[in-house]
Amino acid sequence: MRREPKGYLALVLHAHLPYVRHPEHEDFLEEDWFFEAITETYIPLIEVFDGLVRDGVPFRLTLSVTPTLAGMLSDGFLQERYLRHLEKLIDLSGREIERTRWMPEFHPLAQRYHRMFLEARRVFADQCGRNLLTALGRFQELGVLEIITCGATHGFMPLMLGRRNAWRGQIRTAVFDYRRHFGRPPRGIWLPECGYEPGVDEVLAEQGLRHFIVDSHGVLFASPRPKYGVFAPIVCRSGVAAFGRDLDSSKQVWSAKEGYPGDYEYREFYRDVGWDLEYDYVRPYLHGDGQRTNLGIKYYRITGPGNHKEPYSFERAAEKAAIHAGNFMFNREKQVEHLEGLMGRRPVIVAPYDAELFGHWWFEGPQFLDYLFRKIAYDQQVLAPITLSEYLAVCPVNQVATPSVSSWGYKGYAEVWLDGANDWIYPHLHQALERMIELANAARRGDFGTDALRWRALRQAARELLLAQSSDWAFIMKTGTMVDYAVRRTREHITHFSKLHADILSGAIDEWWLAEIENKNNLFPEIDPLAWAD
Amino acid sequence: MRREELELKTKQELLALARKLDLPRRTLLSRDGLIRALLAQKLKERPPAFTPVRGVKGRLPSAAKSAPRSVSKAAPHSARAAGSGSRSGPTPSPKARPRSEAKPEPRPKPGSKPMPASASSSGSKSSRPPATRPAASPKPFRPPAPRPAASPKSSRPPATRPAASPKPSPATGPGAARSSRPVAPAASRTKAAAGRPGASEAAARPAARPTRPGERPASPKASRLEPPARARAGSAGERRERSGPFGPAAEALHGGALTAPAGRAEGDGRPAPRAALGSPLAMPEKYGRDHAGLMARDPYWLYAYWEVTRETLDAAQRELAEEWEDHRWVMRVLSRPEDDAARGAGGDRAADHYDVDLPPGVTSWYLNVGRPERAYRIVIGILTRTGRFRPLVQSNEARTPRDNYSPVTDEEWTTPPEAFGRLYEQGLAGVREAGSSAELGRLLRERLASDWSSGMLGSMGSGAFARPAGQRGFWFVLDAELIVFGATEPNASVAVQGRSVKLRPDGTFSLRFQLPDGTQVLDATAASADGAFRKTITPTVRRETHVTEMIGNGAES
């Protein structure tokens, strides 16, 4: 007999990748981000959810799938490329089984990888018909998963000069796109980088969204001061609820030093056969330029702080994941019991993470989630997992307050995306935005009439603006790896936008070129450029 | 194939294209040469009907010839084209840069010269037949009257961009596209500032340091002690009266072409972002539009950037007449408290302003205001010797975020102080009896700056999760693999160490093994398809590894 829980745990995973799709190249390094995330994160998560559903475990999870990621997952060209990528891994792992025949500590690992890749192909190609969104949508229909949306291209809202038109463009495009993929409107949104500034919530309300997530100080510094801290949502005057991140649960997972993922039994991310093995042997699996890269087969565990690494053991790592899941649950139980006493109502602990942490960076992450949900279901009665929308249904009365400007980036504000390394992009982004607003207003006035070609160009202009606004480019420029690519993407989209703007005004649309960039930057087929109008 | 696309390609790809088109070898020397040659080649192949349109947009090299004013070998584009192709140094000095050098976004005014990219290749050996070039200037790009007036500015400060401005939109005028690189990184601006007289004065004012924003003020209070208004504010109140809460509106601003203060300081050593690409995309650098943007980076720092058009500057010069002599560029920083703060603690009630001296040529600035929860606006303007301030362009309003718990409480939802402390402490595990909410706020901010608090893993390729590399001195690793290969009848079956081996269609096979220390007996057996013949070959391989390490002159360890 299950008692009413004393509080709730709302796990939120944020699945995001910038739109990287390069049909103009035979193969493209940055597309690997996507392929790795599918193999290491998205498919393992789907397998975990499948297992939980099959075993009747009552789990709940909120998952944001950003529109750019959804666009890539549903794109036939990238699906084809992913399969090609996977075939290579299957081939390599097959050869690895043979190569490690005399190495008893590695041989079973090679066999395991080979099975994993075969399984990934089965899930991707057979079970999901190449589109993982169908599988995710099915979990949503079952009520165990709430899929929320995000800014169309992960544009960081607080650096848009407070222009509502910009926010609306990002959000409305996202909401439209969500409907296309999941056949219903989203209820919640992950604000890109958790970037919030007062006023954004009004646009969310206007577009039918009911809740979003901010970092802890977004709620703690809200005004008026929130009575329950981050353990209950606050409601903006617009009626949209803001959930605040719980610091404790974040720290246990995030911290590179103290967090679970750094455990010595876990798989070492930085020892990969792409780097470790003889060059000619791995060459066929590398990119055209022959640069060594990670290939996704890793034989060592973290072992310790030094360079010496011991062979990985799936069994020992799984045990560790189970222990960590138990520890995480125990801490949340204590937290909930304590909070319930203090608050006099059922607290919600919101624990948001990047989805790609689970599986890609923290190889055992999906297993951790599996154990966690099973333990929560069977080993305790204090807390229950919940989605954010469900919580609002269960606890509909919440304090009205305005969250503080905040983000989940380093130091909590805009510093990551506004820095000596990337500040040069903003004059361009803002000018493109103002021009887009002008074009949208002109379009609404009827200036472009029914000139189908101009409207096409206008829609593409909106896509290019959105793509330029991805917070990923500024982030990459700041972190200093792959900077060239981020610079190039920013310049490319601004350049495209500028030309489209000029062409639309002149009426002389270069159709041949337009078709080409439509084909290349092909996301958001139903984009509405009037979203940018006043 | 457009220039922009070509420029996105690697040199290998360009070479491949060139080979396909059978271009002469001499064109294969530099990237730019290649691109020009490819463009020219494409042109030959295109039906002439297309070309005028393309010419209008200025993507075609020789189009420039039709426009005498735009033909300038000093234009940055041509300079680059003439260079190695991977030029990353500073662009030519602003003065040397002819205004006519246009940009990617070439929308020639009727009657004026065409586009920029065209200028770049004017000196090249373009083989494009002159006839295809639009002889006359392109048709006007936009209906002259309607657009400006109707353009949406409702949410903007009214004075910033007069609706009636003759050329509200960019890149039209002669200098539209003067090439100046994207806003300088803060670090390089610091250098620029240091190099000029009076820089020390500016640097001495903490609130206006052009330093790279790395640190925040030791405490927000500390910088409040330095009343920013101390800077040459003049009679702020008086000016405010005249033009609203934010001081002088930027009257009489004209949209149009050309850029701002004197152009960027050159030679500041830091390559423009585009340099990293090895090849510039044709992105606009300036927009020919008076504009200033202001953003809050955090509760203590703002970032401002601006563009002032030549017209606006000329108008100011005419208006100031002889007062123009000896003027300074300043950024006037206007602020007022946000509503909430006004209701709470009383310290920052007043609106105020102060000026920051701008070194010549800067177009952006990090501004250390040190005061959370205030609304700011900046006005870029000219300050004369007599203290007269002539505004040029005004920014949007930006608010510094709160950096602590709100002083405002909601009666219905008020929590007793001690319960509040305990509740919030929950978010700060390990901190007991944190005491005041200010203390809690401080602890929270410390948390925010710790490694786990940011969404740093978001980017798959960023490697942000990297553990710090261990101390690694000299190192050396070695391993061995064994390749075993053979051949038999294609339809025979082969097994090595009891496991069957897949033969290639020609009957050959090879196997590759990691070879550990010890002995491996490789019994390999081949059997004919009909089972009549069988042959076994058994090599035995032994690996033995010794490692010695020496430090210094042969002292074995």
TrEMBL record, chain A:
Glycoside hydrolase family 57 N-terminal domain sequence ranges: 10-390
Residues of the 1,4-alpha-glucan branching enzyme C-terminal domain: 428-532
Keyword field: Carbohydrate metabolism
Residues holding substrate: 245, 262, 408, 472
Gene3D superfamilies tied to this protein: Families 57/38 glycoside transferase, middle domain (1.20.1430.10), Glycoside hydrolase 38, N terminal domain (3.20.110.10)
InterPro entries: 57_glycoside_trans_central, BE_C, Branching_enz_MT3115-like, Glyco_hydro/deAcase_b/a-brl, Glyco_hydro_38_N_sf, Glyco_hydro_57/38_cen_sf, Glyco_hydro_57_N
Active site (catalytic residues): 193, 354
GO CC term (a single one): extracellular region
Record-level GO BP terms: alpha-glucan biosynthetic process
Alphabetized GO MF terms: 1,4-alpha-glucan branching enzyme activity
Similarity comment: family membership: Belongs to the glycosyl hydrolase 57 family.
Protein name (Swiss-Prot/TrEMBL): DUF1957 domain-containing protein
